[in-house]
Amino acid sequence: MSRTEFVIATAIILFVAFCLGWFANWLVHRFTRVAAGDVAELDRMSQELHEAEETRDQAITYLQQREAELTNQLSQTEAELRAAMDGLRDARHETEEMRAYIESHTQTS
After folding, report:
1. Please, what is the average pLDDT of the chain?
2. What is the rounded CA–CA span in Å between residue 45 and residue 13?
3. Distance CA 101, CA 109 (A)
4. In Å, what is the CA distance from 98 to each residue of 69, 91, 92, 102, 108?
5. How confident is the model at residue 6 (pLDDT cuts 50, 70, 90)?
């Protein structure tokens, strides 16, 4: 192989390598390029996601407040029930005492 043939073969190999590199670069940019419409769509989706997260946080806060209110009402209702049951128990006890007193007086009379 003469010197001229070697230079030509090397030039051809380098040109082919350059073409392959350029083609690979073009493919990478072709598949990774983001269109302006896609960027706008991503911005819109991120804004909607942000709004949805805020709505979720507000709903969670509302539910926590409502749960606290209902728990408080339940505690109050249970306290009232206990008081009513105690009053009923006392009234029954007093009624039994009155019956026993009346029966004891009717038997002695």
Report:
1. 93
2. 48
3. 12
4. 43, 10, 10, 6, 15
5. very high
Q: Kindly report the pTM of this predicted structure.
A: 0.53
Average pLDDT over residues 46-63: 97
- Is 106 or 8 the better-scoring residue by pLDDT? 8
What's residue 36's pLDDT? Answer: 72
Domain boundaries, the chain: 1-35
Residues in the chain: 109
Count CB atoms within 10 A of the CB of residue 17. 10
- Which 3-state string (H, E, C) describes the chain? CCHHHHHHHHHHHHHHHHHHHHHHHHHHHHHHCCCHHHHHHHHHHHHHHHHHHHHHHHHHHHHHHHHHHHHHHHHHHHHHHHHHHHHHHHHHHHHHHHHHHHHHHHHHC
Taking the C-alpha atoms of residue 83 and residue 75, their distance in angstroms, rounded to an integer, is 12
